[in-house]
Amino acid sequence: MALTELGELGRRAKQAAHNLAGASRATKDDALLRSGEALVAHREEILRANAVDVAAARAANESETVIDRLRLDQARIESMAGGLREVAALDDPVGEVVDGSVRPNGLRIRRVRVPFGVVGIIYENRPNVTSDAMGLCLKSGNAVMLRGSAGALESNRAIVRALREGIAAAGLPDDVVILVEDVRHETVDEFVRLRAHIDLLIPRGGPSLVAMVLDRATVPYIIDGDGNCHVYVDASADLNMAERIIINAKMQRPSVCNAMESLLVHRDVAEMLLRRLDASLVGVDLVGDERTRAHIARAGSATEEDYATEFLDLKLAIGVVDSLDDAIRHIRRYSSGHSEAIVTSDYASATRFVNEVDAAAVIVNASTRFVDGGELGLGAEIGISTQKLHARGPMGVRELTSLKYVIEGDGQVRS
Amino acid sequence: MALTELGELGRRAKQAAHNLAGASRATKDDALLRSGEALVAHREEILRANAVDVAAARAANESETVIDRLRLDQARIESMAGGLREVAALDDPVGEVVDGSVRPNGLRIRRVRVPFGVVGIIYENRPNVTSDAMGLCLKSGNAVMLRGSAGALESNRAIVRALREGIAAAGLPDDVVILVEDVRHETVDEFVRLRAHIDLLIPRGGPSLVAMVLDRATVPYIIDGDGNCHVYVDASADLNMAERIIINAKMQRPSVCNAMESLLVHRDVAEMLLRRLDASLVGVDLVGDERTRAHIARAGSATEEDYATEFLDLKLAIGVVDSLDDAIRHIRRYSSGHSEAIVTSDYASATRFVNEVDAAAVIVNASTRFVDGGELGLGAEIGISTQKLHARGPMGVRELTSLKYVIEGDGQVRS
Questions:
Q1: pLDDT per residue as tens digits for the range B227-278
Q2: CATH number of the domain that residue B277 is part of
Q3: Which residues in chain A touch residue B413, judged by CB atoms under 8 angstroms apart?
Q4: Which of A350, A402, A413 sits opposite B244 (nearest CB)?
Q5: Does the CB of B104 have a partner CB in chain A at under 8 Å?
Q6: CA A234/CA B71 separation, integer angstroms
Q7: What is the C-alpha end-to-end distance of chain A, expressed in Å?
Q8: Most buried pick, A68, A163, B39, B414, via CB within 10 A?
Q9: Is residue B406 within 8 Å of B95, Cβ to Cβ?
Q10: Are residues A234 and A217 both part of a single domain?
């Protein structure tokens, strides 16, 4: 795709965004519901398109994990439609008055939430993201440009066709969702520099995509980054609680960013806890430092690299620490700033951990797995920000808005 | 400066930021007051250093404007100290609980304001920024790395020496303010890519610096951009009020970003208003379209370029429009998204302008000159953001913070 073609798509998205910005909540919700209905109505067509993508993935010897992410069935299409219905039920963030005051000179000031304009999403072989991202963007008054991967192109085309039908039926411009169909690698570079047309970029992918965005993007972006999440078990911890939390944080769904990757244990409780974990972390590949291995014979030796790695798998790096300070120092060194938990019954330890650990979420006596838009009450999420600018942690529809100062006067001038 | 040297400064700033993050408001305010006192106590030393910079600027034939910005005197040093006292009096944003709730499973959730960590500032020959930026960053719990220009290096060194003395006297690490003394052009590029050590970058400079940051920075940044600000006079406007606002917005301080650069006038009031402005905009170089020039004989012909330019001077581009729609379309095309004003007595026109114009600030019946941290009640500002991410419009201490989720439980795990 020539730059001009991508620019033309951007121009169309921007125009649609202007029209969408003033749409009422009722109209937006209607578009969301109709889009969901259109997905279900066109399910055969979507499944046929998806079968083409799946066949190509098989021919390319993609892993079963990749194919499972890519594969759609009736239930998954119904679930995408259900997601759109859930987003329709959320409060509309646009127009929310965040704060306001009257100045001594009589100027009336308020800050209101407004859409960004056009949101650009770069993502991998997950066709459900096509529908989910459109839903959250539309609800927050933003047009969306979707740049999916080559391997899901047929599925994405069919899904976007259905979504656009639903949107148009509600009287909104169908260009509020635009699929970039040129999926050559080079166009990603153009996409992240489309500053004239894209107001916010959300790259959803691995470290190489993030590195490319950091290096090349001129569009403002929010990084949905790694989760090298820790659980620290304090000397005062209730060990039953600690064991339950550790099993949940590691094993309930190891492939996601809010799963635990490293466990730190205070030396006073190391022997008792680690012996129990040896038995209860069935099927988990354990690596640890010398003091860990003294209590868990099957544990391998943990390298520097292990402590720095987001395994996204049934693997856990363990370290025994001498104090809360050591735990905080370890976390400060290796954390990716996602979610960090402490298990403790000591008030001062909890307070210090909460204050001194710098992450999107700090957790006391609960599983890291709760750091998720749904679990935190955001309704749905477009990602989890590991950056500090604009949004941190799970991002819902509110994080897809900006603010505008509205200043009203009676002829005031500055002296 | 080798990258490692800049990295070493960054490492020191990061360490200081960790210590500062937990400092009490009382300690931070004490450091601000003592820094102000140190500026005054070391005024002779600062003035001697400044004289060296001013002499060099004169030798290099810099303009009087540049020299005026650079020059310090006793009053200006006292004013810098006064600025630090004002920042000390502001509320501490750190620790503010923004929102919170209890989830159905009993998890207690809150979002609290936390410092970014290390803020990097790139700026020009304005030694007062050295003190102002340190004050706002320290108050918001951030260490600051200052990268001023070569032309103010001696002044900045003397100022930072005094500030560090005050900070240390309050018991805080003096590395909460670090001056990058290697002011070669190449080091700016390293500075904006110091992602491991700098958490937020605020470039304060012209379009070429902004372009460089967009292109090269990997550190998250907030753009303090141009203000190509418009005033639109509606058909229903009170023309006395319009004239007052126009004179103020253009003439009160033409060199700043919230001054008006373009005026749009509804055709129904064009003749009456423009004839009055011809008389009252004394000393302002006027350019306009054909319909403007029909009423202002002295006006030159406005080019496309004129409408797109932030003059920062006693020059004004004027256009006559047929409708509010035309005015909004013109603004959408040329606006830099800073501050846009309408003068009207019509409720629907005011409402549409507020809703449909996309800028950091939209103003009804008041001068654009009010878009300023002090005027809007922020106390002091570190810049005015023209981007939509994180902060929009004037940025005070609150905009120098991020958020953190704090999640507290009693052993909850996810099912």
A1: 999 999 999 999 999 999 999 999 999 999 999 999 999 999 999 999 999 9
A2: 3.40.309.10
A3: 244-245, 247-249, 252, 366-367, 369
A4: A413
A5: no
A6: 56
A7: 54
A8: A163
A9: no
A10: no
Q: Under an 8 A CB cutoff, do A408 and B218 touch? A: no
What CATH number does the domain containing A51 carry?
A: 3.40.605.10
Residue with tokens 């399910």: A43
Inter-helix orientation angle A25-41/A43-59, to 10°: 70
Using a CB–CB cutoff of 8 Å, tell me whether A241 touches chain B. yes
Within 8 A of A251 by CB-CB distance, chain B residues are: none
* ipTM given for this complex: 0.94
Residues of chain A neighbouring B215 (CB-CB closer than 8 A)? 218
Q: Are residues A402 and A344 in the same domain?
A: no
- Kindly state whether residues B247 and B363 are assigned to the same domain: yes
What digits encode the pLDDT tens for the residues A31-49?
999 999 999 999 999 999 9
- Write the pLDDT tens digit of every residue in A47-94: 999 999 999 999 999 998 889 999 999 999 999 999 999 999 999 999
| Cβ atoms of A230 and A260 closer than 8 Å | yes
pTM: 0.94
3-class DSSP assignment, residue A95: coil
List the end-to-end C-alpha distance of chain B, in Å, as a whole number.
Answer: 54
Residue B389 contacts A, CB cutoff 8 Å: yes
**Structural domain that includes position B262:** 229-370
CB B123 within 8 A of CB B136: no
Q: Is A389 on the interface with B (CB under 8 A)?
A: yes
Identify whether the C-beta of residue A404 lies closer than 8 Å to the C-beta of residue B361. yes
Cα B190 from Cα B206, distance rounded (Å): 19
A37 plus A101 within the same structural domain: yes
Tokens 């409402």 correspond to what residue?
B351
Task: Tell me the angle at which helices B74-89 and B127-139 cross, rounded to the nearest 10 degrees.
Answer: 10
- Same domain? For A138 and A75 the reply is yes
Within a domain: B83:
yes
Amino acid found at B93: P
Convert the pLDDT of each residue in B278-330 to its tens digit. Answer: 999 999 999 999 999 999 999 999 999 999 999 999 999 999 999 999 999 99
Cβ of B390 within 8 Å of Cβ of A389? The answer is yes
Q: Is residue B386 part of a domain?
A: no
Q: List chain A residues with pLDDT less than 50.
A: 1
Cα(B66)–Cα(B82) distance, integer angstroms: 23
HSE value, Cβ hemisphere, 13 Å, CA-based, for A311: 25
The number of domains in chain B is: 2
Decide: A305 and A291 in contact? Cβ < 8 Å: no
> Within this chain, do residues B351 and B284 fall inside the same structural domain, yes or no?
yes
Report the mean per-residue pLDDT for chain B. 96
Best of A18, A388, A395 to disrupt the B interface by mutation (most B CBs within 10 Å)?
A388
- Is A290 inside a domain boundary? yes
B19 close contact with A: CB closer than 8 A:
no
C-alpha–C-alpha distance, residues B209 and B413, integer Å: 49
Q: Check residue A305 and give its pLDDT.
A: 97
**Are A370 and B407 an interchain contact pair (Cβ–Cβ within 8 Å)?**
yes
Residues B170 and B31 sit within 8 Å (Cβ to Cβ) = yes
Q: Are B181 and B261 within one domain?
A: no
From its phi and psi, is residue A323 left (phi > 0), alpha (psi between -120 and 50) or beta?
Answer: beta
Query: Judged by CB atoms within 8 Å, which residues 294-353 of A form the interface with B?
Result: 332, 350
Q: Residue A14 falls within a domain, yes or no?
A: yes
Q: Which pLDDT score, from 0 to 100, does residue B292 have?
A: 98
Cβ–Cβ < 8 Å for B325, B245: no
Rounded to 10 degrees, the C-alpha dihedral A13/A19/A25/A29 comes to: -50
CB contact B236 to A (< 8 Å): no
**Pair A42, A182 in one domain:** yes
